[in-house]
Amino acid sequence: MFYLAVMSDSKSNAASCTPDNTVPKAVVSRLSLYLRELEHLTRDGFSTTSSNRLGSVLGFSDAQVRKDLAYFGHFGYPGIGYRCDELISAIKKILGTDQQWPAALVGTGNLGRALLGYRGFQQRGFSIAAAFDVDPTKVGLKIEGLEVCHLARLPELARIHRIRLGMIAVPAVAAQTVADRLVAVGVEGILNFAPVTIALPATVSIVGVDLAIELEQLAFSIVNRPDAGR
Amino acid sequence: MFYLAVMSDSKSNAASCTPDNTVPKAVVSRLSLYLRELEHLTRDGFSTTSSNRLGSVLGFSDAQVRKDLAYFGHFGYPGIGYRCDELISAIKKILGTDQQWPAALVGTGNLGRALLGYRGFQQRGFSIAAAFDVDPTKVGLKIEGLEVCHLARLPELARIHRIRLGMIAVPAVAAQTVADRLVAVGVEGILNFAPVTIALPATVSIVGVDLAIELEQLAFSIVNRPDAGR
Asked: Is this prediction's ipTM beyond 0.95?
């Protein structure tokens, strides 16, 4: 069961409507953004930063940054701010990305190929260790250095690569079956790109990415802007 | 300025912590899910449905469905439930997808190609009307029936195709420059796939999709499950 709760925005007092033991989902999303910016700062040669600087790049107030981080501990130093390396390590530990997360990709169509070529995963601690398809014209192909295997080999390769995550990039009609097979080999979480709702046991987490939904949310934000209809 | 606020989860009383004139972002996200399910139901031959049925497929309570829809009006009929076609039209109008949203894609690497081949956009009212790159080995190629044009032609083609949205699928270092060029030709919103925060004028909306961040959120939900550490 996913116990996170989407509860706060940058303007509300999250703590006031948060039940015990939950961290607002929006806070966890912002942690990822902080991590991304801290890594950019480190790459640019900065060893320390401030809540003010972190916030201003991301469009949040410094108070927001401090409040978010306060959910998880005390990270700043008086007169110094945050030590980038230290805060990066702390956030990775909170997010769980200090661990390895070998993933299986199922579906090597356009989107699957893009996922295989996506450099961002490796940089952030994720790796696609095995890729699967059932299309005989795809099985056996090498994409981005990884051989596409028949889905029948999922149990064997899941064991060998200690697969923990599954990525579903198959058509909607096949998504539930693929999810069931991923669950059967013990994945702990699924990133689902198929535009369909998948039923899973409560012990498996899921994040859905439906690109059309992202566009719909963008459309809504445009037609409902305070300045809309100028 | 994006005035939506992420404020509620399915368990909290959204109205109690929502300032006037805002709809919680989580509600708007769920509208997209309702729309997706309603379209599945229609395709399967159903002409009516209930809050109970809609909710159960998505893992929400019937009360949640009714409460979400109540933000926008009264849609159900006693003894009938919801008329699928009618609710689909209403949600599209709310989301703004009863309008046309011609989009420009910038970047035709792996991800850009996947976006060009993504069938889900067209089905949901979005279309990529023009594709751009600056790589001479890509300019002139035809991908999914669309010619890749040099980014220098953006102003001309934005006018011809009445481009309203931009999709950024270029490397992080180029994303801000591309965003600035999209803003200069008058796009109203940007879907940004580059793993970097982009600064935009308040009159342009943005939705960021960072696939590594989605995986981080999944990892967090796994390591923080109530049953974690069994």
From this structure: no
Q: Is A228 on the interface with B (CB under 8 A)?
A: no
- Helix, strand, or coil (residue A103): strand
Contact residues on chain B for A103, CB-CB shorter than 8 A: 215
Q: Do A219 and B16 touch (CB under 8 A)?
A: no
Q: How far is B13 from chain A (nearest CA, A)?
A: 9
- Answer yes or no: is pLDDT of B106 > 60: yes
Kindly list the residues from chain A whose CB atom is less than 8 angstroms away from the CB atom of residue B12: 5, 7, 17
- Counting other chains too, the contacts that B175-181 makes at CB distance below 8 Å and 24 or more residues apart are B178/B106, B178/B107, B178/B151, B181/B106, B181/B151, B181/B154
The pLDDT of residue B121: 85
Flag if A97 and B209 touch (Cβ within 8 Å). no
Give yes or no for residue A4 having a pLDDT over 50.
Answer: no
**Hey, what domains does chain A have and what are their CATH numbers?**
14-95 (1.10.10.10), 101-213 (3.40.50.720)
In sequence order, what are the residues at sequence separation of 6 or more whose Cβ sits closer than 8 angstroms to the Cβ of residue B137? none
Q: State the amino acid at position B212 in one-letter form.
A: A
pLDDT band at B117 (very low <50, low <70, confident <90, very high): confident
Q: Look at B203 and A40 and tell me if their CB atoms are within 8 Å.
A: no
Bridge partners of B132, per DSSP, are B106, B149
Question: Max Cα separation, chain A?
Answer: 62
pLDDT digits (tens, 9 = 90+) for A13-41: 333 334 445 888 889 999 999 999 999 99
- Confirm or reject contact between B115 and chain A (CB < 8 A): yes
Contact A197 B36 (CB under 8 A): yes
Among B206, B85, B177, B27, smallest CA distance to A221 is for: B206
Distances in Å between the Cα of B139 and the Cα atoms of A147, A221, B143, B171 are 29, 32, 10, 17
The residue to which tokens 């308040």 are assigned: B202
CB atoms A117 and B110 under 8 Å: yes
C-alpha–C-alpha distance, residues B192 and B195, integer Å: 8
Q: Do A224 and B123 touch (CB under 8 A)?
A: no
Q: Look at residue A120 in the predicted model and tell me its pLDDT.
A: 78
Average pLDDT over residues B89-99: 95
